[in-house]
Amino acid sequence: MAKTTKNAKAVATVEKTTSALTTGFDKMEKVSASLAEEMNGLTAVFDRIKMPIGGVTFFDMPGDEPDSTETVKEFEAVILHHHPMRAFYREPYTGGNNPPNCGSLDGMVGKGEPGGICDHCKYNQFGTTENGGKACKERHRLFLLQEGELFPKILSLPTGSLKEFSRYIMHCIPAWKSSSAGLTHFSLTKAVNKGGIVYTKAQFRMGRALTAEELASIKPLVEQVKILSQEVIDEPMEDDPSEMAPSEAGNVTSDTKNAA
User: Fold this and answer.
1) What's the per-residue H, E or C state across 172-191?
2) Does residue 44 come out as left (phi exceeding 0), alpha (psi in the -120 to 50 range) or beta?
3) What are phi and psi of 236, to 5 degrees?
4) Beta bridge mates, 116
5) How far apart are alpha carbons 203 and 187 in whole angstroms?
6) Are 153 and 47 in contact, with CB atoms under 8 Å apart?
7) Under 8 Å between Cβ of 175 and 183
8) What is the secondary structure of 98-167 as a DSSP string?
9) For residues 179 and 260, is the Cβ–Cβ distance under 8 A?
């Protein structure tokens, strides 16, 4: 689970945001009245939807009980916010929420050791790992709100899913003007990189557009999530087999990202 710093203002924003939703997000209204009081002084957390590896086509979704998960083949959610990120571990990543030696929450400038401009960093080059990938891992992080849920969840897309996501965002903009203006359908498919290694790739499809009332209601939450996203620094970074195949990776440009 990803943690952020205490943010009472964020909780208050969520309360105001959720109270007006009446259609597909009606469950949010039922719990919003006591949310600010119950969360006062606590640390906000985001559950994670985990991408599988090895060609497995099931998402690991957070369960109802703490530390429990359930597998699903597909789901729908609103993309409240998305952004690129990078993380470099000098020692091999061994699991858990260990902070990286160097990380970037915009995909452009790293903070830590070595830090600096990501495009100029030697660890952002193919061939800097034993499998021919990059020592600095690239991900694209999505903050997703499902119907009937109060808080968003995080889904971190590996390199091999970015080409499909870039294509999807380009389809969203003409229809919705923003990726947060409708429900996105998420699913998985099996792919093979140039080295013959099987990996899992995410797929995306447009669902229903949000109503005018829903759009107005989630707007404050979208803005607050953008702020909170810059405080979530602990990001699991397992090896991604697709990183051996540069042609499989696509980049969501800053212009496209800002448009969504």
Assistant:
1) HHHHHCCHHHEEEEEEEEEE
2) beta
3) -60, 135
4) 110
5) 5
6) yes
7) no
8) PPPSEEESSSSEEEESS-EEGGG-GGGSTTSSTTSS-SEEEEEEEEEE-TT-SS-EEEEEPGGGHHHHHH
9) yes
123 vs 136: CA distance, rounded Å: 5
Query: Could you give the CA distance from residue 143 to residue 152 in angstroms, rounded to a whole number?
Result: 6
For the whole model, what pTM was predicted? 0.75
For helices 8-18 and 212-229, give the axis angle rounded to 10 degrees.
Answer: 170
How many residues belong to the chain? 260
Least confident of 26-30, 84-88, 125-129: 26-30
Beta bridge partners of 78: 145, 183
**Residues β-bridged to residue 70:** 61
Q: What residues pair up with 77 in beta bridges, in sequence order?
A: 184
User: Do 18 and 32 meet the contact criterion of CB atoms below 8 Å apart?
Assistant: yes
pLDDT in tens, 172-204: 999 999 999 999 999 999 988 877 888 899 999
* 8 A C-beta contact, residue 170 and residue 214: no
Question: Residue 86 to residues 99, 125, 143: CA-CA distances in angstroms?
Answer: 12, 13, 16
Residue with tokens 């401009």: 117
